Each structure stands twice: as structure tokens, then as C-alpha cells.
């Protein structure tokens, strides 16, 4: 199996879907001639031309709304946000138009759009560029939200997202773009709504999404090596739809759950998971469900401090140890 | 030497010269249908038969009827929340519209959209949008979609004068011009953005449409009370969209007799009773069209009465239809949220989509 970067995996997914469906078009700032602000779309414009890969002005409200309008007519636009942070200026379009047009039309209109880009902190770009809005968008019935942690997941999930007939908010991570994973040459897709058990264990379930799933994996290694604790790591991959069965399965197996996310704690995704466990796994739990989130403040710039604002493997280890 | 300036008679423009008497009567009938539909809706709203807001189009009928009458098979319409007129003009039935107002399952949106959210994609009608200016990027997207698919069509994107100060409208104008997209932005200038007059809400020299010049977009203004003029000027914009794939901003002066919505209790405070009366007497599009057709010999008073009565009857029957229709089931609250779930596709059956 080839070892490729997260970035390349996304690019391969885009190229394959452009070739598969004539209605797929990539739109966004610097996606074409500049080869992508983070080089996800590198080479695609040269290969597929102006019609399929198209640079937009810095005008998120208009071009995201434009993509939504075009999707109503049957196109499958894949819109790049240079940062998911910039979704705030297109919020009305994403929430009211992509999210609700199907509902308000009584199911007459659907909106097969993908909006993708990085949504992460940890890169010293300050609070305005470090948003992780998966919880906010998953709060909107009508939208789907996906947060892949690896190259393999990124490729398979993006292909599913593009083929999906509902609007999918696809959240990547700039810190992962250059990381490599094994990705098969042959075509595959990963359905939305299926979590991935990334490490088996017996003593505690670490449940996470996005880059936090990798943090959980590192923590699991430390727990095994230094504390003789066998941690299971469940990567949600998809926030909405949510793989509730996988969450319950792992917790019923280990009887302990620590939830990790790089988002802020208040009404975060893990608040939802925690509520789910309270309701459906109460009798299976041997300890309270604990959470680790980003420290509850806007993303700090100072590089040496920002690393401490996001959950680190040692934070996870400490939290797990508090359960034993 | 004194010069007499004669207003051009748009009846003689090519698009109007080709009209047959039955077309002209059809326009009259369509305007009357909108008016009587809304008058019936107002009565039912006042009787507590519907919730939410009711933004009436009465006084502006010539704009929707005139522009929609020009649509070909690849021309599309999208508008804001004052959307009943456009809905009826594209051919939606009074029954489905009235039932939607009543929140009934037989409504065009199954009772899920309400007054501001009528849709009929089979008639190229894409809503019905509640957020001021929010439909302007969607209209752009319809035009983009048409161009992408190589179809010779246009998106008619309607908006009020209150929407022109929303940022996404200007972002859309920039893209429309930059990418040569066949979109026609039609500003229905009814002089008031809710309770704030044009003068108190918008900065301009001569009109709102001239702002388009900054984006190298052709623009024009239009007297909306004259259906001939509406058609003539909208046709220029459509020709530009079809022939050159270029956008237009067309500002159509018009007037609403009722408040911003029926809940707008102050609409006789921020404007005078006399002003409203003057529009009704001297600028009413139906009254003027009727007079025009009588002069042309196309219409008789008897025929007018017949059309007027037929529209009234149709409106009353739509009230009865709405009254008798069932409300949506409780289960339907979570239907039409996700395509994949509704169709029970593999994707729709994978993972949890709803969290109650």
C-alpha cells in the first residue's frame, strides 16, 4: 500500500470524483491557478481546466451561496474554504440556505454540496483563524459534519461526501496535511456515520474525532507502556450522522470513557456524547465520563502556549489515570 | 424654445407588439388572482387562521406578472419573503399556496415553509427566502448552474429595496460581472425597507440600480405601474442574459398598499394615508392595465367583472380547500430534513441523524 499524505489523499478523492461525475466542480479561493492555499488542489486545474476547478474572489458569502444555488440545479460543487473559520461570513448561506432549503420546500429541493477546508487550532494564527465549528454546524438539522483524522479516512469520506445528496461540512486539519498514512491504490469509499475503532483495548475507551483521535492513539501507547492500562480508541470520523452503536459498544466493553476533542468544551460534540452515555450506558459505566477539550478561551497566539491549549497525549494520560 | 418630453409608450416595443388580446387578458387575470388571493389571505390571517408573518404584494402585481410572462423554459425565478405574487405568476395553484399559509399538509411546502417560503422547482421557482438579501447568492448560483450546463437561460433574482444594503448582494454583483453570469437582479423598490423609507436607508445619487455601474453591470430603472414597461425593460435584461451571458440590475419602482407585513402596525405612521391613497388612485397597476385594455378595445367592463369575480371565487375556494385540509402529522416534523434519510438509502440508514 502506498504511503501518501492527508493532502494527497484529499486530492486523489477530488480528482477521482471530478472524473466520475461531470457535475462535480471545485470552487474556492486560490484552488486553481495558485494550486491551493494549502496545496490540496495542486495540479487539478492544470489537469481538468477552468470549468472544473475555478478560483473565486475572497467573497465567501457569495461563492458559498452560489454553490448552494448551483447544487439546487443539480451540480455537485465542492467548495473550499481556505479556513473553516471563514464560514462565519457565509453563515447565513450555510445554515439557512444549505441547511434548510430541503426542509422549507417540503423536500422538493435538495442541496448536494460539500464545503471543505481546515478547521483547527494549533498553528499560531490567532483566534480568528482557529475555529473548530463542527459542534455548531452539527447543531443544524439538515447539515452533515465529517472530521477525518487520517489520509485513509480523508479520501474515503470525501468521496462519500461528494456523492451524498445532502450538504456535507467536511473539516480537515492543516497540521495533518503533510502527515502520511497507508492508502490503497484501488478505489474505496467510507460511509458517513461509521466510526473507526483505531485501537483495541479493554480498560478505558478514548473517544475522539479529528486530530484528537491521533492524540488519543498516542495517549493509548503511553498508557500501555507506562501504566499498563489498555485503552481502546474510537475515532468518530463523522459527527452527524453519528455512529451511536460504536460508541455504546466500546463503552459497554471497557466500562470507562474519556472523551477528547480540540473544540471548546461548552456544548461541544463531546457534551452530546456524554449525554448519550448517561442515557444509554449509565449501568455499564464504572466511572464518570470525563472530557478533555481545548482550554476554554479564544485560541491564544503565543506559539509556546498554544500547544498547551489543545489536548496533548499527556493530558489524556492524566485524565485516564484519575479514573483508576 | 420649450421642449415637450413625451414618455415612451412601451406598448410599441417588439415584445409587447407581439401580444395577442388573450395574452393581455391573461396578464389582467393573473394580477387579479394575486390581489384576490392576498385579500382572502389577509382576511384569514386577521381571523387567526394562520401564524407567523404575512407580507402582502398587493400594489406590486405588475412586476411579478410582467417579468414572469417573459420566461422561457430555461429561465428561473427566485425571490425574497414577499413571494406570493411570483408563486402565482409562475403557475402555482391558489390551493397549494393558501394551504401553505394555513400550515396544512396540502401546502406547497407541506406546511413546513409558510408564507415566506413557497417553492416550485418544477416551475423553475426556487423560493421564497426569509433572510433579506440571502437569496441573491442563490440567484447567482442558478445562473452559474445554467452556464455550467450550457443552457441558454437566465436567473431572475427579485429583491426589495431594503435588500440592497446587504453585503452578499454586492459580492454577488462582483461575481456575476466577473464571470459573465446570466442573472437579472430585479429590485422591487416599494420605497420602504420595513418602516424605514428609501431616503433614510440608502445612499444614492439618482437611484439604487446605478450602484451596478461600479461592477461594470448594465442597469436600468422602470416604472412598475405600467405592465408594458416592465415587460419591455425586463426583456432587454433577458436578451442580455441569453445573448451575451451578462447580468443586469433592473430597479422597478412600485408600491405596497399594506405594511411590511400584516404585523406592521405603524405603516400609516411612517407614511401618510394620503400617500397610500394617491398610489391606489393614480398608480395602481391593475387599474391602469384595465384602463389601457379598455382603451385598446381588448377589454369590456363585463369581461373585467367576469375575471374579477372568477379570481375572487378561486380565492374563496382556496380558503375552503385550506380549511378542509389536514395539518401535517407529528412524524412529518423530521421528514424532508435529509434526502438520504427520506429515501432510506444506505447512507440514510447509516449512523444516527436525529437526536431526540
Describe it.
The complex is a heterodimer of chains A (324) and B (356). Chain A is α/β, with parallel strands linked by helices. Chain A folds into two domains: 2-183, Thiamin diphosphate (ThDP)-binding fold, Pyr/PP domains (Rossmann fold); 196-321, Rossmann fold, CATH 3.40.50. Helices cover 37% and strands 18% of the residues of chain A. Chain A is built from twelve helices and 14 strands. In chain A, the strands form three sheets. In chain A, strands 3-2-4-5-7-6-12 form a seven-stranded mixed beta sheet, with helices on both faces. In chain A, helix 1 (6-20) packs parallel to helix 7 (151-163) and helix 9 (244-254) crosses helix 10. The N and C termini of chain A lie far apart (39 Å). The mean pLDDT of chain A is 98. Chain B is an alpha/beta fold and 356 residues long. Chain B has a single domain (11-325), classed as Rossmann fold, CATH 3.40.50. Chain B contains 13 helices and eight strands. Chain B has helices at 14-17, 21-46, 61-68, 84-89, 94-101, 136-148, 167-178, 198-201, 227-244, 273-282, 285-296, 301-324, 339-342, and strands spanning 76-79, 125-128, 155-160, 183-189, 192-193, 196-197, 218-223, 248-253. In chain B, the strands form two sheets. Chain B has a six-stranded parallel beta sheet with strand order 2-1-3-4-8-7, sandwiched between helices. A two-stranded antiparallel sheet of chain B has the order 5-6. Chain B is globular and about 75 Å long. Chain B starts with 13 loop residues before the first helix and ends in a 14-residue tail after the last helix. Chains A and B meet through helix 3, helix 4 and helix 5 of A and strand 2, helix 6, helix 7 and helix 13 of B.
Amino acid at each position: 500500500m502506498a504511503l501518501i499524505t492527508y493532502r494527497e489523499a484529499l486530492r486523489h478523492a477530488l480528482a477521482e470524483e471530478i472524473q466520475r461525475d461531470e457535475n462535480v466542480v471545485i470552487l474556492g479561493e486560490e484552488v486553481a491557478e495558485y494550486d491551493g492555499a494549502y496545496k490540496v488542489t495542486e495540479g487539478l486545474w492544470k489537469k481538468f481546466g477552468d470549468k472544473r476547478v475555478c478560483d473565486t474572489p475572497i467573497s465567501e458569502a457569495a461563492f458559498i451561496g452560489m454553490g448552494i444555488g448551483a447544487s439546487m440545479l443539480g451540480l455537485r460543487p465542492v467548495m473550499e474554504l481556505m479556513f473553516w473559520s471563514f464560514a462565519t461570513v457565509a453563515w447565513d448561506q450555510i445554515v439557512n440556505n444549505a441547511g434548510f432549503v430541503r426542509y422549507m420546500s417540503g423536500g422538493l429541493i435538495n442541496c448536494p454540496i460539500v464545503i471543505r477546508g481546515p478547521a483547527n487550532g494549533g498553528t499560531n494564527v490567532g483566534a480568528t483563524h482557529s475555529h473548530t465549528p463542527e459542534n455548531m454546524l452539527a447543531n443544524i438539522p439538515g447539515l452533515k459534519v465529517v472530521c477525518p483524522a487520517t489520509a485513509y479516512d480523508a479520501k474515503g469520506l470525501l468521496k462519500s461526501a461528494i456523492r451524498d445528496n445532502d450538504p456535507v461540512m467536511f473539516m480537515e486539519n492543516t497540521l495533518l496535511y503533510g502527515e502520511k498514512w497507508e492508502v490503497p491504490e484501488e478505489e474505496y469509499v467510507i460511509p458517513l456515520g461509521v466510526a473507526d475503532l483505531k485501537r483495541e483495548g479493554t480498560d478505558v475507551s478514548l473517544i475522539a474525532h479529528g486530530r484528537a483521535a491521533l492524540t488519543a492513539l498516542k495517549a493509548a501507547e503511553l498508557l500501555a507502556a507506562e501504566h499498563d492500562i489498555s485503552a481502546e480508541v474510537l475515532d468518530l470520523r463523522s459527527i452527524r450522522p453519528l455512529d451511536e452503536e460504536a460508541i455504546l459498544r466500546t463503552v459497554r466493553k471497557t466500562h470507562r470513557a474519556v472523551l477528547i476533542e480540540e473544540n471548546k468544551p461548552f456544548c461541544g460534540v463531546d457534551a452530546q456524547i456524554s449525554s448519550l452515555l448517561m442515557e444509554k450506558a449509565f449501568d455499564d459505566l464504572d466511572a464518570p465520563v470525563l472530557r478533555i477539550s481545548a482550554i476554554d478561551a479564544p485560541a491564544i497566539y503565543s506559539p509556546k502556549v498554544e500547544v498547551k491549549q489543545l489536548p496533548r497525549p499527556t493530558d489524556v494520560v492524566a485524565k485516564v489515570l484519575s479514573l483508576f | 424654445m420649450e421642449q415637450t418630453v413625451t414618455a415612451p409608450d412601451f406598448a410599441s416595443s417588439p415584445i409587447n407588439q407581439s401580444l395577442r388580446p388573450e395574452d393581455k387578458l391573461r396578464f389582467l387575470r393573473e394580477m387579479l388572482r394575486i390581489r384576490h388571493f392576498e385579500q382572502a389571505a389577509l382576511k384569514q390571517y386577521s381571523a387567526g387562521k394562520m401564524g407567523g408573518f404575512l407580507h402582502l404584494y398587493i400594489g406590486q402585481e405588475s412586476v411579478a406578472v410582467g417579468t414572469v410572462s417573459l420566461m422561457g423554459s430555461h429561465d428561473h425565478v427566485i425571490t425574497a419573503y414577499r413571494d406570493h405574487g411570483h408563486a402565482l405568476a409562475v403557475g402555482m395553484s391558489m390551493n397549494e399556496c393558501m394551504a401553505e399559509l394555513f400550515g396544512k399538509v396540502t401546502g406547497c411546502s407541506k406546511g413546513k415553509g409558510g408564507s415566506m417560503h413557497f417553492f416550485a422547482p418544477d416551475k423553475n421557482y426556487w423560493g421564497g427566502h426569509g433572510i433579506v438579501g440571502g437569496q441573491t447568492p442563490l440567484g447567482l448560483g442558478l445562473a452559474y448552474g445554467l452556464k455550467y450546463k450550457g443552457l441558454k437561460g437566465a436567473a431572475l433574482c427579485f429583491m426589495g429595496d431594503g435588500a440592497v444594503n446587504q453585503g452578499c448582494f454586492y459580492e454577488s454583483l462582483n461575481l456575476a460581472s466577473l464571470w459573465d453570469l446570466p442573472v437579472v437582479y430585479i429590485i422591487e423598490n416599494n420605497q420602504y425597507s420595513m418602516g424605514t423609507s428609501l431616503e433614510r436607508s440608502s445612499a444614492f445619487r439618482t437611484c439604487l440600480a446605478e450602484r451596478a455601474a461600479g461592477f461594470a453591470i448594465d442597469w436600468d430603472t422602470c416604472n412598475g405601474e405600467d405592465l408594458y414597461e416592465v415587460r419591455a425593460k425586463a426583456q432587454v435584461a433577458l436578451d442580455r442574459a441569453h445573448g451575451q451571458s451578462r447580468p443586469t440590475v433592473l430597479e422597478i419602482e412600485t408600491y405596497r398598499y399594506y405594511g411590511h407585513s400584516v404585523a406592521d402596525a405603524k405603516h400609516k405612521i411612517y407614511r401618510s394615508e394620503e400617500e397610500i391613497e394617491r398610489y391606489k388612485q393614480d398608480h395602481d397597476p391593475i387599474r391602469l392595465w384595465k384602463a389601457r385594455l379598455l382603451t385598446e378595445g381588448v377589454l369590456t367592463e363585463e369581461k373585467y367583472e367576469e375575471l374579477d369575480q372568477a379570481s375572487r371565487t378561486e380565492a374563496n375556494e382556496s380558503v375552503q380547500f385550506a380549511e378542509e385540509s389536514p395539518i401535517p402529522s407529528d412524524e412529518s416534523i423530521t421528514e424532508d430534513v435529509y434526502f438520504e434519510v427520506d429515501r432510506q438509502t444506505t447512507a440514510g440508514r447509516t449512523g444516527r441523524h436525529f437526536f431526540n
